[in-house]
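#dry-run=false #mode=assembly
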Amino acid sequence: MAGAVTTVTAVSNEAKPKHLTEARWVRGVLIGIALLFVGVVILLPLVTVLLEAFRKGWDTYWAAIKHPDAISALRLTLTTALIAVPLNTIFGVAAAWAITKFTFRGKNLLITLIDLPYAVSPVISGLVYILLFGAQGIFGRWFIDHDIKIVFAMPGIILATMFVTFPFIARELIPLMETQGNQDEEAAVSLGARGWRTFFRVTLPNIKWGLLYGIILCNARAMGEFGAVSVVSGHIRGQTNTLPLHIEILYNEYQYTAAFAVASLLMLLAIVTLIIKSLIESKLERSKHGD
Amino acid sequence: MMNHAKQRRYSFQLLLVLALIVSVLSACGSNGNSGSNASPSQSAKPSESASSGASASPSASPSETPKKDPVELLNVSYDPTRELYVAFNESFAKYWKETTGQTVTINQSHGGSGSQGRQVLDGLEADVVTLALAYDIDALADGGLLKEDWQNQFESNSSPYTSTIVFLVRKGNPKNIKDWDDLIRDDVEVITPNPKTSGGARWAYLAAWGYAAKQNGGDETKTKEFIKQLFANVPVLDSGARGSTTTFVERKIGDVLLSWENEAYLAKKEYGDDFEIVTPSISILAEPPVAIVDKVVDKRGTREVAEAYLKYLYTPEGQEIAAQNFYRPRLQEVADKYKDQFPELNLITIDEEFGGWREAQKKHFSDGGTFDEIYTKG
Amino acid sequence: MAKSRGKSVLPGFRLTLGFTVLYLSLIVLIPLAGLVVKTAGLTLPQFWETVTSPRVVASYRISLLTSFFAALVNAVFGLLVAWVLVRYRFPGKKLVDGLIDIPFALPTAVAGIALTSIYAPNGWIGQLFDPLGIRIAYSPIGITIALIFIGVPFVVRTVQPVLQELESDMEEASVLLGAYRWRTFRKVILPELVPPLLTGFALAFARGIGEYGSVVFISGNMPMKTEIAPLLIVTKLEQYEYSQATAIALVLLILSFGLLLVINSLQRWSNRRLRSS
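#status=ok
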């Protein structure tokens, strides 16, 4: 049962032979610059958020987190991500396969169309669904007559999230699969493996990192999206508020500290996904040694 | 053997994909059917609804027999009224329970006045709207959601409470800012949100305009010049009132913040005594209006309770809550009680001075209006 | 390394392409068509007047310039960060790796508020520059910083997997041939990294043009100076001018679509050249 085609991947990156890495001082300088950049651009705002979150002590922090509105916002955010991310993952893999494994006319156009949601201002990505499904929208009347709520309810929030996070996984996979070429899959097929098997046995191991990064990014963005969701949510407390919207409400209520506390909760969620990523990483590492 | 496994895997994957799609569709569908409210299991209701327990009725079955079934209202409002309506909703729910025996849950939605109005126009099912400007409710009337003469439906222009624009300055008033004249001095920096995106900033703009017009005997060129000088002193134009308050209070930019009276008090309460409120000689009578959205209440059968809700704003209890939240009450007895909190000042009104909101909007804030002229001409 | 031309032996073309196009249409194209339909409510002169008024043009300029510089900075430093993360070992590496995704997870509004408090004249970094007469917050520099923050993950996360998969055979060969490290990097590694780098740049750039939530807090929103195009869209909506709002949005969309198309073509071209060499 052991696959007829084992893939050639992953020389352990960290144990490079001496002649393939830079002089010590070069490494030091490069690491230094990279750390400085990450420190100033990302860490500093992060620390600011945490400092603000705990400015009034642990009690205020905890009270903000366990407030019923915060809990319901958390639930809505997680549900949204749970639906939007898998769907976009399936799409991303399918799109990357079609684009990188075959040549066809209009490929550039297709790739660019997939990128389109990046280029659309979040304000607009919410608005387009209002223009379609809102009371004055193109299909709005029909949905209202049938008493189906799309915008200002959960379906609208999910749609807007899907729109915003639409390209992430495809975009992550396309350059990666482009670099890898087709030879592994072609070898597998010529050895008689069928489509799905080729995919799961050959392609998937090859693209696992890209896929993982894509899912993590997609998930992070799905949970953190503010602009688009804000337009379609209706802002009903305890009902259609996602975490980012709840944060905005707190901020507007002069609950500065609470707002940052809930924001830190979102960062925590991002960190949880990263821990999951590390777990997968070490598991993959182990299974590789097991081979 | 390999072939077999392959096929099994194939069909399994297909099944998985199908199952996923079906589950998503059904999730969307079931949610869609439950109307404007998320199903009770999905949302932790605020404590007010505790008495209704798990039986918070989905709006799909509108209360034909309102005496028994609990009912839900959605009040779509603007940003600074949050505290006001949290307190008011609680009081009203108690009152309604006592007089009719019915449990009412009021859901709240807040945001910029304009975008809130737009959401209702686009299908957010608000039973009542309580916005910052009549203009935003006029837009709903234009969209056929309520009657053209909605403003006559309740007393006092359908505005149960009023407010005005005041100055918030730093402790000790170091720049000695007393009146609108001081705002155009070279050494003064003024913080105000963008009138294009903030309802409060529009009131402030009109107050400044009204002052300058009076000062210059109605000479429009001079008035425009005054406004232009004022905005030349504005270093940051935030998109909303709260953003401006942050810029002024947290970032310590600017010498004076043009603010809603209630916002100024709130900021003072929140940030202690680092600030002082200065009341100018002339300001504007801001009348945040309320209205019932006819189309929605007729559809959901909630007219009775919605009307009672807005009428309750005019009762002594409602007025008291408004005053506690720094809105000027209409009722004389309550106003007398709180008169130390609200200093007398000369208030111009939008109807007398500007011919109503539609006129004011057209002349000053729409594209090519007087506000645009400040930045695009010379 | 011949790339399949015409008929590929690999299966699944119809299935995957069909699904891709269907999903794309449902989630992206049909909704965006709504944008076009709405804009069609304007007559052509009205449309032209809306999208070429001085304030709107100024806002396009600001949005494009700041996004461009932010994406450029991200391309350079993002590559460096990805390189360091993949190739070197140092304490706290996992942590740094994790930090990269934070800009996505943090709601843009929170990012905007946090950045403003750092770069405002009384903030940690702002106060260092204020005496020098340099204003960071409430100036185009502030907008650029917000956009750098927003765009970091795009570059790092597109370059990283490619770098990870890059086989060292080629490097090995190049070293055996006596090439110096820097030359190896330029001639062997960099060409492989050009496609993901261009992708990352394009994405960060496109995202920057549309960004609203974080920028409004730090930009100061002064008309003609620091007013970004998405803010004008919101302004129009606030006045219930749907068609004018969608008109500005449409121009923005076409601009970034064109840019993406050019960059994507460039990327595929460099890719093809790489494969054929």
